[in-house]
Amino acid sequence: MSTWARNRARYTLSTLQCVKQLYGIRKEPITSKMFSTSPCSPLMELSGFSDQQLEVREAVSKICTNFPDDYWAAHDHSGEYPHELHAALARDGWIGIALPEDLGGAGLGISEATMMLHTISQSGAGLAGAQSIHANVYATQPVAKFATPDQRRRMLPRLISGEWKACFGVTEPNTGLETLKLRTRAVRYGDHYKISGQKIWISSAQVASKMILLARTTSLEEVEKPSEGLSLFFIDFDKSAPGLELRRIRKMGARAVDANEVFFNDYKIPLDSLIGKEGQGFKIVRLSILETQSPY
Predict the structure, then answer these.
(1) pLDDT-derived band at 291, boundaries 50, 70, 90
(2) Alpha carbon 168 to chain centroid distance?
């Protein structure tokens, strides 16, 4: 046997030993590390998590067993959104994991929500599985924390129940990750605003009926600091209404969740779509989404 063949055989044996130990097939420790000088370790170290976070992981894992690799392969091929996963998670209350209990949510924190999304991805769903619900989990935090009680009652329960789906409208084609340079405008006209501008790489826009939108109520040229003048809105995302156009972006991988260009041209929204105060949108998003625990 050649040196290459002997090394290949040892490598294969070492790999099989690791797999057996990780999955409980082999109980005795591995003494021979073959090529690797690092010990075998689980796919995810769990010792640092709370009992509650581990309970989330276990419960969500059970749901995900109903969505095997064949399910995700088919949806990646067809480009169809995983409605069945969304419905299953909503049915058991997971869409509202970090939303208030008095509105039907679980009242847990962002750490628990992150555990849920990680578990979905690790189940075989990959990034597409997490992307399919992440806007409903994270982008709704500003609404939960800064909307008025009446707005929260109107906006959140049907997202939690799964009746509505939401998308998050932030990224623009000429700003990339520089959120403070956003230029999409929301101009007030009497009892409504008109939205004009463009968003890009907006996930799940094809299936969403609501959007959490970050737009400028004061132009970039008129503010002292670029963090000023941005406002946050929770809007009806009505593709049949005048002034709103979507273009799906063709992509490779994670095709079960659509990515889109969104064009606004004097798209009309009511005044009570505004979350918090005008000009405080960036601060609201920063405080809401970057917090690690829910106050509920």
Answers:
(1) low
(2) 9
